[in-house]
């Protein structure tokens, strides 16, 4: 059995729907202040989730979905007012987005097609709340499979010897143009310089249940260790390889009859579903990073 | 993989912790009104979950956990004030409970021990938020296993010919003394009269994935149909057998090699975990009934 | 967690690999007779699975994978010899196939693309042991998605008023040309006449955990009943709708927040993985029908 | 969903049922030789599973369950004959056991009761194929819970300063008296000397999904790493801590709301079910060790 995860807001009307994501030190009166602000602004709360990292004295995080007629026109003023009247007072980080404006996403891939195609196909079905603006690959192989989805495919060769130029080329393509980069089994290392300059979050899929089998060839290592489950992990990319905040994980049962190729095949199913959940949740503003962990509302 | 379900509040301090569960027609301003009331009453919201059955015009339900110094002394006055200032205005049903006052629970069992023992054992470990005030069985067999837990075991014989007297005896024991009755594989039919007079909710465990295999001998029927999964369902008891609101379900994988006895053995593991989750969630005031469905916060 | 199922023989060399599937009344000496025959024929057993429906007096089924140099040339003679020297003696049904000859498969679909595309993708990746010789749909919508896979797409309109002609057309296309028909969310009823004349097995995917929610609109019914899991069932098609032998089932967890559209979206993921497992297992000669049940080796 | 695992032979009649477990270099004719021997000895094969680690040139392992009238009387002679006529010829390791003779098992525990009690419950219900001959603990706490099961409870204090004496005492109690030692959350290190002298296999339950979070405090480490699943691993004990051959693993879903205590509580459910599966499979002679891996038939 898989866990289905969250209801998708993609099946709801998006007009006039806003999302307010915020974080601050916990203290009494936060929910009342925020909900009173929204109520006075003419917004009706559709759903509200909050989390505190401790019963007292922790960090408070909240995600609120609300309906407000005329949101698009009023959004900037609302943001200013919230900043002045609520966020400033409580020292809040916050983010106010409109459901009607899907995130602009680039997907980076290499030769493996399963994660890439699954994202494109789900997006075409309307399951993911994003606009895929380009696919970049260091191999030309998948062009014919990507372009029928109406998405530009860009071949940017990359290997150890031309890493700097390749990253420069990718930065030119991506910077300012996307809100999220998804690494769909992209097999090139990204340098700290790239991560520092990209200006948006990156989500990666690792083909093991982290922290087991970090690094290369996790299915081979899993076979050697004789594990009875293999898994996949979607996480935000940080400078430490395979150490970023985990968004989602899942596993599949295997046994002694499965060779490394079988693990790879069975694992691929887990990879694509885990990555697509993580991307959906990110695009719906469900994920809050807190240190090396995530809160997924 | 099982789904772990919710964090248990049983691992938290319970002093001064209150739970407010409510339901009303949805309309703007509800969250603000409720959270403002709590804030003004000196209560700090620890967690808040809400659900609307429709984006507009549906039923609104909310569960709020709050911390308020001196709650025990102030509870009755708080309830009155909430009724006057909030609940009345919005036509709310609500319920205000204290985490420090666990529900009084009776368990009814027959000969099967797995669900009964698992509940008693989890409760001894402090995993369930309840006080088991008695076990009633229509067979004497399990007395020696129950009494070491410090729980009274009462043998009330019951079969078709003495149903009325048996139910009268059970009603004398239970009515007013318990907040919840758990049927832990209790194999006697309960009449509408009993359900009408008991005065508290009942939770039953059915040994199939409802609505598949209603009625008797579900594992035999499952074997005959050749299903690849068998399951269990915990639900509130209503007059319609096996038709009450479902609280929790889970399944286990089986195959052609499993005989009916194997299904029974494997299913028993699912039954005990599904029932214990349902009882925990009920005792923590997480479950709201809505027609023939449940919302589990 | 999903169950990965069986190792795929598709990752093994297929040259000289044979599969012997058989069924007869159980009696002593069967395994010895069969394995001695294979040994004397120069075949080395790679894997062997057997099942008896009862400890004594039941039905015996066995699947044997073996390696025999020159199998293709020797196959017909081997079949004759096995029939004479073993099968006749024990009253066996048997089937001798070569791994190097994948089954010829037709897929029937309507408008929904998830099951169809998943089968085509997996087959292109080499995960399924089949040759897709045509896709037939009663709608033209999916032609552009199917043809890039190099598979013929045939539009055969079908509805209640032209059922007989439509079935005749399909029979002309299919009969003798395919070893298996897969109904990938094909939304037309197939008549007993069609099933009688098609001359090969059909596998269907039903979008519920059978026997729960037979018939139409299972996700709507699931929502109304308030279940906590939804599922899918792959089964052989028989004249009784939704009653054929079950090959595989799986489920996904849902809750009160999921609307019918969410159930449909989450269920689609289960449907495609359940169907692809059933098709793979059938194509690898793993499935034996026994009354209304299946043995999956 | 949990995986149910294997059908239990404990629900079958055990009289005259034998189990033959063997391992040798793979070569043609093995299955034929073994099944012919059994057939000639008057044994009827009830079930047979085999596995080769490679298509050719690997290690061959087989588990055969057979029925032979008068097995108990004939067993020693049968063992001799098999050794002479089959095992010697192929260089086989083998083991011939009777289902009617359950393994003698000792359970070592410390203060945690969940794994210990679950084993004792299941065994009382007839689910496990073993005879528990003693429970040894380094704490006296659980005596009152163990003795009502009719099992001797022995308190053998153990800590760093008296490790040698404590191990000597345990060896005196165990050596020759048990066929298996189960560490049911036993929190003392066992030295290489102890492992060398005990003369029977040991099964341990580790409270993480190995190889993630080896060593101490895995639930705390899991919380810090922000994983979305926690698990448990049952493995044979070797001199390398947490490195022995894995018999079974499973996981449970967790999220940001779960504190370390919640992980411990949810993990305990996984631990007890994983350990009980591993013990059952070992007691039914299903598990073959092969290097650092296990084959579970």
TrEMBL record, chains A, B, C, D:
One of its GO terms (biological process) is 'de novo' IMP biosynthetic process. It is an enzyme of class 3 (hydrolase). The active site is at 242. It holds the Pfam family Formyl_trans_N. SUPFAM superfamilies: ACT-like (SSF55021), Formyltransferase (SSF53328). It catalyses: (6R)-10-formyltetrahydrofolate + H2O = (6S)-5,6,7,8-tetrahydrofolate + formate + H(+). Pathway: Purine metabolism; IMP biosynthesis via de novo pathway; formate from 10-formyl-5,6,7,8-tetrahydrofolate: step 1/1. This is Formyltetrahydrofolate deformylase.
């Amino acid at each position: 059995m898989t866990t289905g995860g969250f209801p998708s807001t993609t099946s709801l009307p998006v007009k006039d729907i806003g999302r307010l994501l915020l974080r601050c030190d916990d203290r009494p009166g936060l929910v009342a202040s925020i909900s009173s602000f929204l109520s006075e602004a003419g917004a009706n709360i559709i759903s509200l989730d909050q989390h505190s990292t401790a019963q007292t004295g922790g960090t408070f995080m909240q995600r609120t979905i609300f309906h407000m007629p005329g949101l698009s026109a009023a959004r900037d003023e609302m943001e200013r007012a919230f900043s002045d009247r609520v966020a400033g007072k409580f020292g809040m980080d916050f983010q106010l987005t409109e459901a009607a404006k899907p995130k602009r996403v680039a997907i980076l891939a290499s030769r493996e097609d399963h994660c890439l195609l699954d994202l494109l196909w789900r997006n075409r079905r309307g399951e993911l709340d994003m606009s895929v603006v380009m696919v970049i690959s260091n191999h030309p192989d998948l062009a014919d499979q990507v372009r029928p989805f109406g998405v530009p495919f860009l071949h940017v060769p990359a290997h150890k010897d031309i890493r700097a130029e390749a990253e420069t080329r990718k930065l030119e393509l991506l910077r300012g143009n996307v809100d999220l980069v998804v690494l769909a089994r992209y097999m090139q290392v990204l340098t700290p310089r790239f991560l520092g300059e990209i200006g948006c979050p990156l989500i990666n899929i690792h083909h093991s249940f982290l922290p087991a089998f970090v690094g290369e060839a996790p299915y081979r290592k899993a076979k050697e260790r004789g594990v009875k489950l293999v898994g996949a992990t979607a996480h935000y990319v940080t400078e430490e390889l395979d150490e970023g905040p985990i968004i989602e994980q899942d596993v599949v049962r295997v046994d002694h009859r499965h060779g490394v190729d079988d693990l790879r095949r069975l694992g691929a199913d887990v990879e694509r579903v885990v990555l697509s959940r993580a991307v959906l949740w990110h695009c719906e503003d469900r994920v809050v990073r807190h240190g090396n962990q995530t809160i997924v509302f």
